[in-house]
Amino acid sequence: MAAAQVAGSLTSGPAKEAQGEPPLEQGHGFRCLSARLCALRPDDSSSSRTELHLLFDQLISENYSEGSGVAPEDVSTLLVQACQLVPLNQNHLVSKLSQLIHHLLNTLQVIVDEQNLDFLLAYTISAIQQCSSWTHMQILQALAALVYCNGSKCQKYLPDLLGKSGLLMKLSDLAQSDPEVRRAAVHCMANLCLSVPGQPYLEEPYQNICFQAFLTTLQSPKSSDMDDITFCMLLQNALKGIQSLLNGGKMKLTQTDELGALLAVLKKTMFHGLPGLNIEMPTVLYPTPLPQYDGRPPIKPQQTESSTSRPAVNKRKKSKVKAKKIQQGEEEEEESSGEREVAPVTGSGRLNPHKGDTQCPSSLGVSSLPLAGSGAAGKDQVSSSFSSSSWKRVSSSESDYSDAEGGMQSKVRSYQAKVRQGALACFLSTIKSIEKKVLYGYWSAFVPDTPELGSPQSVSLMTLTLKDPSPKTRACALQVLSAILEGSKQFLSVAEDTSDHRRAFTPFSVMIASSIKELHRCLLLALVAESSSQTLTQIIKCLANLVSNSPYNRLKLSLLTKVWNQIKPYIRHKDVNVRVSSLTLLGAIVSTHAPLPEVQLLLQQPCSSGLSNSNSATPHVSPPDWWKKGPSGPFLEEAAVSSPKVSSEPCWLIRLCISIVVLPKEDACSGSDAGSTGGSTYEPFPLRLEALQVLAHLARGYFSMTQVYLMELGEVICKCLGEADPSVQLHGAKLLEELGTGLIQQYKPDSSIAPDQRVPVSLVVMFWTVMLNGPLPRALQNSEHPTLQASACDALSSILPEAFSNLLDVIFVADTANAILMSLQDKSLNVRAKAAWSLGNLTDTLIVNMETPDPSFQEEFSGLLLLKMLRSAIEASKDKDKVKSNAVRALGNLLHFLQPSHIEKPRFAEIIEEAIQALISTVLIEAAMKVRWNACYAMGNVFKNSALPLGTALWTSQAYNALTSVVTSCKNFKVRIRSAAALSVPGKREHYGSVDQYAQIWNALVTALQKSEDTTDFLEFKYCASLRTQICQALIHLLSLASASDLSCIKETLELNGDMVQSYILQFLKSGTERDDTGAPHSPQERDQMVKTALEHISSVQALAGDTAKRAIMGFLEDILAVYFDSSGSQAALLGLTNRFLKTDVNIRMQGKSKVLAHPVSPTACSCSAWTQCMEQLSWKGKNNRKIREGKGNSEYHQTGSLRVHSPAVSLSSARLALPAHRLRRLGRVGGSLLFASSSISFFQERPSFLQLSPEPPKRSFFFSPD
Fold first, then answer.
1. Facing residues of 664 across strands?
2. Which of 300, 334, 871, 1052 is deepest in the core (most CB within 10 A)?
3. What is the C-alpha separation between 92 and 54, in angstroms, rounded?
4. CA torsion 341→342→344→349, rounded to 10°?
């Protein structure tokens, strides 16, 4: 009776609706059935069971359309009530209830709340334990639906499910007799592994258990009692589980065996069911730079031909007819049981899963595009190698669903294709979860290499790209290959082509070069053979990744030429995604290792080359001013006269990109342009943006060709900045920045561009005048789009300094500065960082302007504006490091720019003190090294302003203390270098303050020199030489300014560390010829002139009576110059120095006789035989009459830093050299003799150091002079 009432109530609804009554509201049927179910009470009678069966059937058959109006909590409540009504001893009811749970949760996209989930999980687990085995399949389906995205809420049930004796572990075991149950158990485990962002994930032990279970499933062969479709579904579930572990669980594959086993099974699975191919893989793949294994059995060409291809005529006839069937087949051919698919949670307990437990290919990021694209342009031009049966595949029109044998075979092939897609999706997740350096150890297992003669091509991702009948699978394989190539520049940089001669082994660099060439060949084959627009887009994107990372400067020519010529026809493809990716590829070509001579030649090709297709979807390329309507006017006429003569042949790519950006689209492409706004007359935004990016790449890498179009590009930029779309504005600003940077590079001192090939400054001024009078200022003030503001700041900072003086006037600077200062207050950190960068560049130009002879600009510059800029820079110096680094640079420039008229004003005193304190604190804080480097640079800029009270102001000692602290203790040597450079800036002795302040700076620099190699960071060692060079320059600079009061502290330091200082200054004098960024002298003449200047200054100092410091310092400098001149072979300088400093008599006593040379010493006396005879009999004694050495035969006279004397037969006596001092110094060789003079190094030491001065024993003619 109850059953009859239920049936009647269920049929009354549709009947009333048929009679013309208004339709019931959404969810009404579900609510009626739910109310009936909730009204029931547990009853074991047959009528109650019948009623439940009917209710469950009606709930399952109810039409739950999208937006059915059923609340998730109502579904959970109904399922709990149903479980309470069904006892576990009723197998049929339990089976029907399980179907209901699976159907409702899957169809209504419901995730059960935690409270109801707890009850439902306990019920289903008990059902598996107590019900008959024939019900397990349906119960496991219900369990899979319950745990979907609920793994974090199932923690207390995990031991029952995944423990050693857990239900899922038993049911998924290889010993499970029922293949459907095994598949459903694996499906449950895969759903357990799904994660929801923000919720805890499976504990690591359970992750490992699931991973091993999935891996074992993938490694095991198909059992005899399992059909092909079930086996495919089993593999898909295991792959989906591993993918979930890698994506959501962030599982790290740290063990080589673990990763190798996964990669081995993925490589095997990604070829599952591929017609004509059957490979055997080892259990584990090990990383190796060479091919480890090629298990592909030889395939007879006849079998391959018959199983994978058909006559070309038939293909082309059927392609249009069956295209729709293919698309529907791959989308609609799903698992009949309705397994749930992975989908993101959308909120309110709902999610958006796909039916079935197969991996949706869209998870790989492949956009949904029509599969039946037009045939690739140029396909008829395929060379004879393209027609080989080794690469043929079934076209997209003859994929899985056109098999003549019937629907079952098509269904099997469909599931096999989905297995391959799932394996590729899992492989993509694996790539993202491991480091690149680990991945590239398996390069040869997945990336093709050029096969040797007579050997087959190894299977790789390119095998799928060329041979797989499914366009989706081909697209997935290409996306995986793109992921491998992305970021591979460092790995591929070792590639190098060598000569063709035979070797006993193949070098790694040659193997990588061979692999790169094979990738080019295979991808170009795929390009001309592909007809699916979706896959074609992926091929071109993959080529772009390959081009971006390949070292073409180390490879033989023609690789890029082949790519260039093949891709040009696709610029007119009717599918906009193909056209966008084609421009992306062209952008990659012009940006890789730019400028490349090969690419420069390609850019100079005639514009008609490769673009002769009359069905063009892009505007026709015309003369250079084709896109402007109306006359160009005197502005562009003058620009044309001023333009440098670079190349008479226009660059077709630049003209093409400009036409895409500014010209209206033609009707030929209006029907297929995805991404274009309705009613837009221009090309779609993605295409226009890509064209602007290509123009930016050309401006960066091939500016010599781009500069011809400077004014045209300026108008394009103005047009872009004036549009409403922020992305077009942003790309226009980026192009402007690249053009400005290119102009700056041309005018750098080290530029190799001839002056007549540069863009004239007058034309640059004209260009920037247009920009500044156009929409650029509005972009600077567009607070609604901070990224655009930041980009506009970058563009403004790229104004050529040589042109800035012509643009510069007080009003312009005021307007620019105010716009920048406003951006410094922006909420966006990125905008503030860019604004600080622009402020730094603007103040750089103020410094450049100071060098002009006209002082009117400095005099007219507003003091109020300077105050405003100083205050803003001080505040910005307290911001994040990205802002602070340029804020302190601006502070240094502004303090340098201050004129005496500004400094004299009382209102400036406080702001100057505050600005310098900001710099001092930035020098000392533990900030990013770039920030501290800029702060030291800024401090040096401050010291250049002689109008500031440096040396007398209270902040002087603080500034010097900060710099000396950095130069001796900072971990970063580049910061030390910059602080030493700042210490050498002041040009007067009074700027260094008191004697104590001077002594502190001197001692700090000597200490820094002594510690110039003390670092534990290996990366800092390369800056050691530069640091010593800069410190030596600072020390010599201090000596050239020293006063009489400073000499005593200098002498004390030299007595302690003179040897060390002397050796480093000698290295400074002999060091390289390249000027570094600190401005250190770069030529030997400049460097030794510094020492001479210091020596002359010290000699002119009026020392106090009896003070020996002056003589000691002079001797120190003289010794440095003498050793340097001797080592460099500069006799003229040496003789000049000798004549200058050797002006006294010598008294020699020999064998009881005295011989006095009563006239001044001169170098010509060196050849005197008396000195030779004297030398042969001398025995030397020091200050305290201590003998150095006596002996017969071969003897050496050891003199610190001076000489080793070799005499074959010396008879030593008690002769003695009487000199007023006890220091000798070698001056050099004159006429075969050696000259000596005074030295700062003690003549006698307890353990004298030895210095070999000549590679051969010197002659016995010597000359000695007193101190």
1. 682
2. 334
3. 13
4. 60
Rounded to an integer, the average pLDDT of 201-227 is 90
Q: Nearest to residue 121, comparing CAs of 85, 90, 167?
A: 167
Count of other CB atoms within 10 angstroms of residue 853: 4
Question: Which residues, 6 or more positions from 1176, have their beta carbon under 8 angstroms from its beta carbon?
Answer: 1207, 1210, 1211, 1260
Cβ of 411: how many Cβ atoms within 10 Å?
19
Q: Residue 242's CB: how many other CB atoms inside 10 A?
A: 29
Half-sphere exposure in the Cβ direction for 1029 (13 Å, CA): 26
- Name the burial class of residue 447, with classes exposed (0-12), middle (13-18) and buried (19+) by CB atoms within 10 angstroms of its CB: buried
Q: How far is CA 423 from the centre of its chain?
A: 29
Which H helix or E strand runs over 1148? strand 1146-1150
pLDDT greater than 80 at residue 351: no
Cα–Cα dist 1222/1109, whole Å: 17
Helical residues (DSSP H) of 595-748, grouped into ranges: 597-603, 633-642, 652-662, 685-701, 703-706, 710-721, 726-746
Residue type for position 908:
F
Q: What length does the chain have?
A: 1267
What is the four-CA torsion angle of 1146, 1150, 1153, 1158, rounded to 10 degrees? -10
Q: How far is CA 250 from CA 213, 246, 430, 1203, in A?
A: 18, 5, 10, 69
The values of phi and psi at residue 309, to 5°, are: -145, 160
pLDDT for the residue 1187: 34
Segment 473-489 shows an average pLDDT of 95
pLDDT tens-digit profile of 1059-1103? 999 999 998 888 754 445 555 556 778 888 899 999 999 999 987
Helix (H, G, I), strand (E, B) or coil at 1174: helix
**Residue 1108 identity (one-letter amino acid):** T
Q: How confident is the model at residue 501 (pLDDT cuts 50, 70, 90)?
A: low
Give the Cα separation of 84 and 1233 in Å (integer): 116
Per the structure block, which two tokens stand in for 77?
């409540």
Shortest CA distance to 532 belongs to which of 425, 421, 397?
397
Count of Cβ atoms closer than 10 Å to residue 475 Cβ: 31
Over range 83-110, report the average pLDDT: 92
| Straight-line distance from the first to the last Cα atom of the chain, in angstroms, rounded to the nearest whole number | 133
Q: Which residue has the higher pLDDT, 1238 or 446?
A: 446
Interstrand relation of 1262-1263 and 345-347 (parallel, antiparallel or unpaired): unpaired
1250: three-class secondary structure by DSSP: coil
Higher pLDDT, 1231 or 274: 274
Cβ-contact 1251, 1201 below 8 angstroms = yes
Give the separation between CA 114 and CA 218, rounded to whole angstroms: 33
Residue 1210 DSSP one-character state = -
- CA–CA separation, 681 vs 658, rounded Å? 15
Pair of tokens at residue 62: 């109810």
Question: 970-983: b or e for each residue (b if 16 or more CB lie within 10 Å)?
Answer: bebbbbbbbbbbbb
CA distance 1149 to 1166: 18
CA distance readout (Å), 476 to 367, 419, 436, 462, 539: 11, 12, 20, 11, 10
Question: What per-residue confidence (pLDDT) applies to 241?
Answer: 93
Evaluate whether 1131 touches 1235 at the Cβ level (below 8 Å). no
- Give the residue among 1134, 1093, 1108 at the shortest CA–CA distance from 1223: 1108
- Which pTM was predicted? 0.67
Q: Does the N-terminal peptide bond of residue 595 adopt cis geometry, omega within 30 degrees of 0?
A: yes
State the DSSP H helix or E strand holding residue 514, giving kind and residue range, or none if neither.
helix 508-529
Structure tokens belonging to residue 649: 């042949």
- CB count within 10 Å of CB 604 equals 14
Cβ of 747: how many Cβ atoms within 10 Å? 17
For 368, other C-beta atoms within 10 Å of its C-beta total 9
Quick one: DSSP state of residue 1181? Answer: B
d(CA 240, CA 423): 9
